[in-house]
């Protein structure tokens, strides 16, 4: 658990450029620039858990409202047409949800978009670090 990279970033949110928001039990981060997708978010429990059944009732109860809030924001701020929500956990065992928005004008959709965005090479769109920082700065006050 000590070498879990998601555990290691807990408590250091203020110095993390990808940090978006937090609730009592979860922290939300934007995906790194290499994914090339503005609005791609991760929801992570603040404590180490590797499956949904390990979460307490309170932790489980908080999650749907947080997903709904982020989804609404993605529909509004970047005019997402769909928001894919998934959990894989093969590379990083610490439970985390991927929120992957599909916007109009993006050629990829469905599993292909998910595979490209979540994979090491990203979507191939011209997304810069500045685009992501601008997006985070815009949504932070609303969350
Ligand atoms: Zn962890």
TrEMBL record:
Q: Motif location (Histidine triad motif)?
A: 94-98
Chain ranges of the HIT domain: 39-109
Q: Which residues form the signal peptide?
A: none
The GO terms this record gives for MF are: catalytic activity
What's the domain of life for this entry? Bacteria
In terms of InterPro entries, this protein maps to:
HIT-like, HIT-like_sf
The name this protein goes by in its record: HIT domain-containing protein
> What phylogenetic lineage does the species belong to?
Bacteria, Bacillati, Bacillota, Bacilli, Bacillales
């Amino acid at each position: 658990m000590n070498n879990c990279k998601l555990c290691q970033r807990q408590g250091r949110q203020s110095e993390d450029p990808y940090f978006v928001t937090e609730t009592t039990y979860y922290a939300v981060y934007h995906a790194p620039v290499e994914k090339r997708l503005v609005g791609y978010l991760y929801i992570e429990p603040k404590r180490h858990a590797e499956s949904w059944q390990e979460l307490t009732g309170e932790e489980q109860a908080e999650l749907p409202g947080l997903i709904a809030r982020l989804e609404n924001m993605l529909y509004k701020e970047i005019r997402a047409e769909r928001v894919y929500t998934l959990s894989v956990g093969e590379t990083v065992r610490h439970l985390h949800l991927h929120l992957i928005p599909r916007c109009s004008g993006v050629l990829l959709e469905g599993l292909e978009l998910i595979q490209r965005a979540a994979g090491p090479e990203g979507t191939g769109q011209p997304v810069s670090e500045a685009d992501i920082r601008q997006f985070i700065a815009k949504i932070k006050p609303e969350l």
